[in-house]
């Protein structure tokens, strides 16, 4: 599948943004985060910028962005529509939570309840993002049970990394947040490895034989393509550039997305203070690069069944 | 609404039956489709850089050619592919706007271009590659089963068929109601063992493909030895070779 940069940016940025909103919406009412209004402003502003920036970026993928509002209508059947609806709904209690915290310094009671509600809706949004891909049966690398956990875990890991950095600007050594960040990044890493193992070892049921009903006389090969140049189907669904380099790119994603953030978080956890802030900032920067590469690979490694009609023997 | 109409037994299911045994791969169905639909219900079907390098455009029908088997037992199969108007079309249910829909009255899958936002998700959801994006208008396009022919009262009754079926010079394409077990197309599917493409994905395509007949296997496949090259040494042959060389200059 063609990795459109607008969608790579959308899923990574809004994943991190909504996950940060989950952590703030739960952490602040429970008193686990700095209660300072300044922290509330900084953290919520970054969460909203990431989430809304990602959503805006997704509109660039559309052929008719001015009609984007229509995408909220088919939530009965479409995961994309559900994602849109939940993402907008998140901002309603989120706004009350933000105003209460930033302007009045309140994070409990009704404001806290709104925070928890916003957290639940943000979690639903990330779940829907994962389901958009997991529900597509023609793409074996997406239609499997590792994809939704992958989106939730990577969203939460990036949200935790940003939170760990921000909390360190207000509290010198946030043990709880840092420990959780460390654990969640390791868990996300494990899930990503399991996903990679799945797509390496389990093959799709569809083959060129099932796609053409041929094969009774032996191997089926493409003799002639219907057209001499690339068409929309091949540009969009027949993307093959990354596959040659996929092992190298996986190493980049593994190192920048998981190994370095884990080490930097541990480093910050051990030293605290200014060194801790620097460590957490490096963890965020490294994870941003790693998760963008991971998401790019998520698209580039996905093989659509339409390629079976264009010479692929299996997907 | 992108929810599917309720499936009821006996409901009309208009579609195509494609005979892989007969198709000669002439691409006439693809060109006739393009010609009719370029100004039809879903037209225009744009072409980009049509006379330059990297020419591409929107087509609803594509003819793939495959080889099956090795050596003497091998054969060539031409494989036309267009929208299969599935009974469980995920291209419809994934649509966030309601632009994609499946008609309850005849099962035809269509796109409302006035609503489509061009998110392309439907083309990802189609296993068969039936939907192609119109980069000019920013909306998705697809086969309409020539909805503007089959119900067109301005056409003679015998012409109320999809353009691809009308044009096929070898009668490899048939149009009819696959929901009616006694229709001509349904009986043909039953007789010839017509089947679904990628049934494992559960889209329940309405269009059926008739597999190539097995009967011809083993008959007439004994290769004739190539004729031995004649010895071109007689004076007449030498003269002919000299003429050939002179004329080739």
Structural class of chain B: alpha+beta
Number of helices of chain B: 7
N→C terminal distance of chain A: 12 Å
Q: Just name the CATH architecture of chain B.
A: 2-Layer Sandwich
Oligomeric status of the shown chains?
heterodimer
Tell me the count of domains of chain A. Answer: 2
Mean model confidence by pLDDT of chain B: 92
Core attributes:
heterodimer, A: 315 residues, mainly alpha, 2 domains, 11 helices, B: 249 residues, alpha+beta, Alpha-Beta Plaits, two-stranded antiparallel ribbon, 7 helices, 11 strands, 18% strand, globular
Give an overview in words.
The complex is a heterodimer of chains A (315) and B (249). Chain A is 69% helix and 2% strand. Chain A has 315 residues and is mainly α. Chain A has two domains: 1-135, no CATH class; 145-315, no CATH class. The radius of gyration of chain A is 21 Å and the shape is globular. The mean pLDDT of chain A is 95. Chain B has 249 residues and is an alpha+beta fold. Helices cover 21% and strands 18% of the residues of chain B. Chain B has seven helices and eleven strands. The model of chain B has no long low-confidence stretch (mean pLDDT 92). Chains A and B meet through helix 3, helix 7, strand 1 and helix 8 of A and strand 3, strand 4, strand 5, helix 2 and helix 3 of B. Strand 1 of chain A pairs antiparallel with strand 4 (62-68) of chain B, so a sheet runs across the interface.
